[in-house]
Amino acid sequence: MSEDLQRKIQSELDSFKNTQKELQKAISSRQQLDGQLNENMIVKDELDILAKDAKVYKSVGPVLIKTELVEAKQNVSKRMEYINKEIKRVDDQITSLEKKQDIHREGLQKLQHQFQQAQVKAALHA
């Protein structure tokens, strides 16, 4: 009985640890996206203060290519829109993983409680 319970506990613990790893990856990804969004907001602010006839250059590899101001603003806006969608997706993933982690935590607590009860019963019958 207790060996079967120990296997269940170990299995639940492994699932819990895997969920924790996935959650940490998602949180790291979210932080990266926040950084990218902040960078793009700074670029957008800088583009907004430029005169309409200002020269704007876009970095393509090791080369700078002249770009129209309107096009540069559109590119930054599209990038920010994409990043915001990714942030929403990752936030949903984090929420889901947190719920999954709570379920595993509750399962572990129940199994540990069962294991302790089994040990007490075994000690009483010995």
Report what the structure shows.
A two-stranded antiparallel ribbon has the order 1-2. It is rod-shaped, with a radius of gyration of 26 Å. The two termini are 15 Å apart. With 126 residues, it is mainly α. It contains two helices and two strands; from the N terminus they run αββα.
- In quaternary terms, these chains amount to single chain
Distance between the termini: 15 Å
Per the principal axes of the C-alpha atoms, what is the gross shape? Answer: rod-shaped
Task: Report the β-strand fraction as a percent range.
Answer: 5-15%
The sequence of SSEs as H and E is HEEH
Rg, please?
A: 26 Å
Q: Could you tell me the number of beta strands?
A: 2
Helix count from the secondary structure assignment = 2
Structure class: mainly alpha
Largest sheet: 2 strands, antiparallel
Write the layout of secondary structure elements.
Blueprint: H1 2-49, E1 56-60, E2 63-67, H2 69-125
Antiparallel strand pairs: 1-2
Helix pairs in contact: 1-2
Output the keywords:
mainly alpha, two-stranded antiparallel sheet, 2 helices
Summarize the structure.
The chain has 126 residues and is mainly alpha-helical. The chain is 83% helix and 8% strand.
